[in-house]
Sequence to fold (568 residues):
Amino acid sequence: ESEYPSRAASGEQENADRADVPLVHFTTSRSVGTPTGNLNVDIAEAARPRLRQVTGGTPVSPLSAAMPWGRSRPSGDSGNSHRQGRRKVAKRVYGLGGYSQSSRVMLCMVGLPARGKSYITKMLTRYLQWLGFPVRIFNAGNLRRQEGLAGADANFFKDDNKEASSMREKVASECMEEAIHWLTTQTNVCVAIFDATNTTQKRRGKIIERCRESRGISPVFIESICNSDAVLEGNYRLKMGNEDYQHMDPAKARADFLERVKAYERRYETIDDAEQDGDLTYIKLFNVGQKVVMHRCSGYLVSHIGFYLSNIHIQPRSIWLTRHAESEDETHQGEITGRGKAYCLELSSWLQARRQAMKQAGEDEGAEMLVLMGTAPVHGATFENLSMARGVSPVEGGAAEETKEGELTLASDSAKPTRSISATSCTSDGAGQEFPAMSTSLLNELDRGDYAGVSYARVQKEYPEVWAQRQRDPLYFRYPGAGAESYADVIGRVRPIIIELERQRRSVLVISHLAVQRCLYAYFAGLPMEELPNLDLPMHTVVELQPGPFGCKVKQVCLDHCGAPPDG
Fold:
């Protein structure tokens, strides 16, 4: 946050930051060797790591705006004076979603205890940070416990306890003020999440009035309603593990918590369209994804939040990430090697065992599997070898050929062919089980321009200057050449894949190259984007991700017993 010019003290709206941002920028021209000869490259020395300059009239790439804070480009029509070392005043170029009339959003959770509010806030935080927005959670329950009120019993939450009611309001107000103060210190589009019950119109009215006192802060209410006995039972079990009940007898803890819920139910007022004369922005979730209602949700950020929340759920399932099997050449156009075929066999057996374990645990829907892969030949070859490892004979041209143990069928949609495999060995009753597979170019490898097909080891050895540039800024660096991408570009490209993985209720196997696997892994593991380009994810290793209420469980399983080296 300290990397940006600050107008925090005055709490001014983002509009005030849309004026020219004075950045001094110089460029130098160097000759760098490439696999296709020498190329003159302008190396930009920016004043700040995240607020970049675009040199010599080069247009801003659509995906250089992948992060909402965007980049800056010099004013003027010509880059010649730029090359002569003259100072230029840069104009802010916003990334997608970075230009907002109400630049600071306060998401206010609403709902009874154990309705999944904290789970929703954690998922939202992970997604919004992935989009590049600063996000912070302010939890009223945690603040109450920090102020010495941990272990408060149900009587503390009853309205007839006037002293306790006053203390609850005091804690909620302090938590709200912390959130607003943090928002006013930000100079870009940002999100504070006020995680409290906020169950009365009076409390919500106070939040709205307080936000109006600080220019540029927009309150958005997210109400979580849960009437599913199965979901509630699971939520109650999770609540027994928090600090209020850690040292209590489980039966007594449950009884006390249910009494607390009843106290909230007596004063609970659900949000409706008439509240605040209809001038209220809210999103209602029923049973965490079963149904979503949105009201007055306009603007890039708020509409994205609503879209994301309409795709999340709490269905147990796994996401398996794997790189393609080892191929014969560096361009990955050749045949799968013997080592790669052995990996496909191991992976097929491992997936079968994992799915069987999920079925035995009663996770029938999660045990179903979808395959997502890129359009590179090596992705299709990996999938075909997985198919044959399951006793399936692949066919070409859209025809379907039955085999002794299963069949491979080809269908098509509006984009790419969709394949599905079935194998009798997958189910205990001998019935066939389909495995639909979809391919999309969104899962293709990071485009390295003139260096496509050149391994990292070779770039490091033969083109040390290019490698040095990459090491200085691995997240934003693009190799020379047309169509080259940075990791930030790939992050923007795989956003629809993230939504698809969140939406799916069955388990998903993703076959991709290293850069895409790193992006997906970093999202679900909640890692900072700056760490993403250097994540160690070896070949012939499957990563299992299991999203849950306390984050995502991550496990790496090496299935290569031949020691396949990582590729570039």
User: Anything to note?
Assistant: DSSP finds 16 helices and 19 strands in the chain.
